[in-house]
Amino acid sequence: MKRHFDEDLAQLKERLLRMGGSVERMIHLSAKDLFARTEADRAELEKLEREVNDLQIVIDDRALKLIALRQPMATDLRFLFMASRISSDLERIADQAINIIETTHHLIAGGPPLVPLVDLPLMAEICQEMLREALDGFVRQDASMARKVLEMDDKVDACKRRIFDEMLAMMESDQKTIRRGLCIVLISRNLERIGDHATNIAEEVIYMVEARDVRHHHGEGAAPGAPAE
Amino acid sequence: MNAIIEARGFGVSYGGSAVLRGVDLAIRRNKITAIIGPAGSGKTTFLRCINRLSDLAPGLGVTGGLSLDGRDVYATETDVADLRRRAGMVFAVPIPLPRSVYENVVFGPKLLGVRSRAKLDEIVERTLRAAVLWEEVKDRLNVSGLKLSGGQQQRLCLARTLALEPQVLLLDEPCSGLDPISTAKIEEAMQDLKSSLTVVLVTNNVKQAARASDRTAFFLMGELVEEGPTADIFTSPRDSRTNDYIVGRFG
Q1: Is B142 buried (19+), middle (13-18) or exposed (0-12) by CB count in 10 A?
Q2: In a domain, B78, yes or no
Q3: ipTM over cut 0.85
Q4: Could you list the residue range(s) of the whole structural domain that residue A209 is in?
Q5: Residue A70 to residue B191, Cβ atoms within 8 A
Q6: Which of A44, A82, A38 minimizes the C-alpha distance to A203?
Q7: Which of A4, A64, A69 has its CB closest to that of B210?
Q8: Which domain range does residue B65 map to?
Q9: What residues in chain B have per-residue pLDDT under 70?
Q10: pLDDT tens by residue, A25-56
């Protein structure tokens, strides 16, 4: 029997995907600015950010109301609980994209490029792929896609550590590089946070699909559920 | 707002003691309105006044106004039989007539003079489909309605009520004796029906009100405490008594 409730759930899913699409676009724009050393299209960014913020409020409100009204159980309950979490992670990824654009502005104002960027574009690329995979896992209810995201996060962290060491050495040897070096460290930190939020989304998808809580490596291979109290 | 039922300062007493006082309530067309409240709150009394089943109780006194589709329910010229056709009711306990499934559904239309077999067949299929019962009984329309399960009997009663094409469907605890699957079928039927009629659902099951209705009215000790969109009532009620009732602190 098809339930009217299924239409509510489908609408919420569609909103989450719309939010995910806007956030992906924001990361794309921020990476483009960073590597092409261009100025962002402010109007488009502001529109996207507004859209993301509005959707977070709408998704939370709908999820809360559907929990109150429909008393969902099992897969429905996990979906609604995770929908609210995923929207919160997406909103914070959007904030990080804005931070990258602002720091890029300072980086460009600080002078010509210090060194050819290698790890930073790699990081940006991996982060975008992580978010894409996590959202695809959400759409297809596929925990294996989400698990790939967890593995990618280690690469992001390694890139960030290399960037930090490289910039530290450069700033120690030539103080004229400090401003630009700090900007690059900050941007790598923003990208690392994007990776962390994409990882959260992947973990949320795994919980939604398998009822298995894999946060902090808990539950991998073990029985689903929370630790014993 | 497009109201089909309007109560203005509406009060009811039995033998001089008031059971409903000063109810101002507009029930919107093509919506499902749930009426909730603890025992003795007056919710069933209110429902039974809409089609004047309350007339059957001795010593009834009515004050204020109550109208259905702009016509005063308690006006002396009101044709009560016609009123009950326009506002059909389904009760807590299903009471099929001791006749076939088919005859149960066509009983009302036949009394109204419908004779065409094709027309009656059409009514039977349409209303049984609307009551989410057709697939289960289409091959045994001639068996007695009493042979059906409790959940099926209740949906048969719903189909029988729908056969008279009411403007308003009054449901008095329609799922109180039903299993969850039959309950879900009745609730899904209500959702599909609301495009063509208005549903007023009295229920002691607060969760049913939450999941099945568009608007909710909370009655307490003969008074309407508040009415509003169900999503608001169940997440942020204005009155603390409503909050206490829906979270289960009393009632």
Answers
A1: exposed
A2: yes
A3: no
A4: 4-217
A5: no
A6: A82
A7: A69
A8: 3-246
A9: 251
A10: 999 999 988 888 887 788 898 999 999 999 99
